[in-house]
Specification:
Layout: H1 2-26, H2 37-52, H3 56-85, H4 94-113, H5 116-146, H6 158-172
Helix pairs in contact: 2-3, 3-4, 4-6, 5-6
């Protein structure tokens, strides 16, 4: 009887640890500092180089494009954080719109540096990103329904949307 109860306790602890490990994987590691704009631009450029077969000149140009966008996004984050600390509330969707515009500008600049075949592949990557975003949004809506929250079509705050857009660009490529 004691052995059986010990097995149940061990099994319960194993499941609890597994669940916590999965939850931690979903959150950013608090012990790891956030990536710098240079690190993010470099990682994104390296992924694009692999996927699109960029030459040296293209890689350098795209790195500059990604670096400018990453720096501007950091500026927007700093601005938003400062406003929140002062107790100001930005206009709904303001920062999300700014990031969307930055991403569109980044896409246009990247497309200008690619050849015809690379443009086709980049369009495929962008289409896949859109599909992934739709799935994320649908999952979010379903979760809201389960929690009996009204679905306004918007995220709770600009931080959520900003993180989602950054994830979309940096992880999907």
């Amino acid at each position: 009887m004691k052995k059986t109860s010990i097995y149940f306790v061990v099994l319960f602890l194993a499941f609890a640890m597994l669940a916590e490990a999965q939850r931690m994987g979903m959150r950013r590691n608090p012990n790891r500092p956030p990536k710098t704009p240079e690190q993010r631009a470099n990682a994104l450029t390296n992924r694009l180089t692999k996927r699109l077969g960029l030459n040296g000149e293209q890689k350098e140009q795209i790195y500059k494009i990604n670096l400018q966008a990453a720096q501007r996004i950091d500026e927007l984050r700093t601005e938003a954080r400062a406003k929140r600390e002062r107790g100001e509330k930005p206009e709904r969707g303001y920062y999300a719109q700014k990031i969307r515009e930055l991403n569109q500008q980044r896409d246009q600049n990247i497309m200008a540096t690619l050849n015809a075949q690379q443009k086709l592949e980049y369009e495929k990557i962008k289409q896949k990103r859109k599909e992934t975003m739709k799935k994320r949004m649908e999952k979010r809506r379903k979760m809201r329904q389960k929690l009996n929250k009204s679905d306004t079509g918007y995220l709770e705050n600009d931080n959520d949307f900003e993180e989602m857009l950054l994830d979309e660009v940096e992880e999907e490529l």
